[in-house]
């Protein structure tokens, strides 16, 4: 199949669904000649986990940052909850953002705040009307959901890499998002901890009915979490399918991810 044919809308297991995320003809260039996205099209249905694979610099993180308005694309359309986020005012965009959780590679915790304060700060930023008792209960519940209720008074510097990831995830979950964007959720973790994080992603999907985009280089994580996988190459979607389909793809470059 030629490159242009492969760069089509991501297939869906149920075409009749209205996608919860839909990206059409997305382009982004930095500077004069660093083009990272050259017309990407994809969709994510409700309750689906989409994994994005690609070499470093292929535009994976840029794409999900465009979804939440952290980066502005040069061209294209991004629909979230059937709203084109690129046409929204800041106030309208913020209403969309409160339904989206974003787990950064580092966990992005505030080092000067305790675990309790990190989570409470995020919750208050989204729901200013909550009482202190409600905030405290929500913080405890979020931490218990990731198995770290006992870490509530620790500082980020006291946490292992795996614990920081879990706390970052708890901070994401505390706003009860409908969509979660994971940017390398298992990077820098040992094999056992990586598997625990992958299992947690699946548990969250099933318990909270979230839809997710997961960027990863960790093929064990991809195999465990993906309903569907797309592979980015040279700014476009080079291949897509289930883990099992892509593992057997005739394209040697695609199969190299699975070796």
UniProtKB/TrEMBL annotation:
The keyword Transport applies. Residues 21-259 form the ABC transporter domain. The keyword Nucleotide-binding applies. Keywords: ATP-binding, Nucleotide-binding, Transport. Transmembrane segments: none annotated. GO terms for molecular function: ATP binding. Signal peptide: none annotated. It holds the Pfam family ABC_tran. SUPFAM superfamilies: P-loop containing nucleoside triphosphate hydrolases. It comes from the Bacteria. PANTHER family: INTERMEMBRANE PHOSPHOLIPID TRANSPORT SYSTEM ATP-BINDING PROTEIN MLAF, PROTEIN TRIGALACTOSYLDIACYLGLYCEROL 3, CHLOROPLASTIC. This is ATP-binding cassette domain-containing protein.
